[in-house]
């Protein structure tokens, strides 16, 4: 159990580090993080705190979706946000687009590592993963459709609030799956299948 806890917590901290790099790259974010950034800009609350609050708000919806919590689920809701607020103070903003692109590519690899560690520990899905799977079960709709609707909705809301949408958004969508596919076997303690949704937080 301790091995799993160390693995999941390390993975979540790494995910927070990766998000801080993506934020400082300033070339766009994945849908949920664009939403988090938009909320941060509108409310004036730190991005890390927004991630934590949104995570617990999504967990509240789990009550109606009858999803089962794991210790990894709670750690996910807390750790990534706190890590973001810590690492964002240590990483300088990319001075230009080329640096930003380099930042983002490195961040995708690092995030893939963190996600693989978190999933491999097998201590419960992240809050946003559970939202998707719960809606799939209740509505009977296919995973791809539910995932697309959720991500288009949060991306649109994030964009309206000033969240970063750009090349990074596209890069993340196409690259994170293959990266996790390569890295997950390194940490997969239970040999679980890759989830349909890859949540970094």
Which spans have pLDDT < 50 for at least 5 consecutive residues? none
Average pLDDT:
91
Which band does the percent of strand residues land in? under 5%
* Topology order in helix (H) and strand (E) letters: HHHHHHHH
Number of domains: 1
Shape: globular
Instruction: Count up the helices.
Output: 8
Radius of gyration: 16 Å
Span of the ends, CA to CA = 21 Å
Structural class: mainly alpha
Helix content: over 70%
How many beta-strand runs?
0
Folded structure, characterized:
This protein is mostly helical and 201 residues long. The chain has one domain (2-187). Helix content is 75%, strand content 0%. Helix 2 crosses helix 3, helix 3 runs parallel beside helix 6 and helix 6 crosses helix 7.
What distinguishing features does this structure have?
201 residues, mainly alpha, globular
In short:
This protein has 201 residues and is mostly helical.
Secondary structure topology:
Elements: H1 2-25, H2 31-43, H3 47-65, H4 71-87, H5 97-121, H6 127-139, H7 143-160, H8 167-187
């Amino acid at each position: 159990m301790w091995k799993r806890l160390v693995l999941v917590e390390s993975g979540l901290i790494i995910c927070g580090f990766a998000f801080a790099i993506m934020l400082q790259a300033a070339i766009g974010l994945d849908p949920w993080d664009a939403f988090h950034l938009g909320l941060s800009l509108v409310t004036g609350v730190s991005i890390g705190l927004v991630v934590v609050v949104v995570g617990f708000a999504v967990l509240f919806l789990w009550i109606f979706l009858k999803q089962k919590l794991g210790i990894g689920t709670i750690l996910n809701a807390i750790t990534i946000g706190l890590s973001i607020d810590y690492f964002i103070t240590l990483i300088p903003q990319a001075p230009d687009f080329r640096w930003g692109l380099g930042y983002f590519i490195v961040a995708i690899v690092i995030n893939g590592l963190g996600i693989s560690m978190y999933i491999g520990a097998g201590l419960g899905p992240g809050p946003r993963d559970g939202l998707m799977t719960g809606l799939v079960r209740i509505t009977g709709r296919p995973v791809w459709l539910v995932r697309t609707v959720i991500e288009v909705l949060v991306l649109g809301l994030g964009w309206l609030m000033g969240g970063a949408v750009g090349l990074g958004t596209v890069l993340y969508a196409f690259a994170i799956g293959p990266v996790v596919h390569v890295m997950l076997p390194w940490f997969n303690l239970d040999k679980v299948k890759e989830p349909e949704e890859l949540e970094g937080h």
